[in-house]
């Protein structure tokens, strides 16, 4: 009887590490299928779904995309997503605006073409945000994935 308990304890002792190993292997496989951060951001910059890479998500330049038909990733989950892509949009616009302004100032100092620079500044700040709308949406979706905000629990849980 004592030997039987020992055998059972041994079986339990062996089975438990196997179960843990199997869970770790499942977690590693799930992690290996997840795109790496540069891949997520590159897909966003190329107007692809950051999670699966699917193309042609937009029906119009200013139309928010529906959830990805391949993986179901939502691009309009809540108000935070709207604020997020607008921050990306205006942030990129202002970084490019400042970089352009500094480059023109450095290249033309002391004879800076102020009138031309003003016209370009207005054009950049007026048009660039419109051009960046879809890119901002997909890049923000990639950033949300990176923050694990849009990832649900692994399948099977
Ligand atoms: Zn997708």
Description:
With 157 residues, the protein is mainly alpha-helical. It has two domains: 1-33; 37-151, no CATH class. The chain is built from five helices and no strands. Helix 3 (79-108) packs across helix 5. It is elongated and about 75 Å long. It binds zinc ion (ZN). The site of zinc ion (ZN) has 8 residues, from loops.
Structure summary, number of beta strands = 0
- Whole-number tally of structural domains: 2
Element-level helix/strand string: HHHHH
Q: Give Rg in angstroms.
A: 25 Å
Biggest beta sheet attributes: none
**Euclidean distance between termini CA atoms:** 39 Å
Specify the number of helices.
Answer: 5
Give the cofactors and ligands.
zinc ion
* Shape category: elongated
Descriptive tags:
0% strand; mainly alpha; 5 helices; 2 domains; binds zinc ion; elongated; 157 residues
Quick take:
The chain has 157 residues and is mainly α.
Write the layout of secondary structure elements.
Blueprint: H1 2-33, H2 37-45, H3 79-108, H4 114-131, H5 133-146
Zinc ion (ZN) binds near residues 51, 54, 68, 70 and 73.
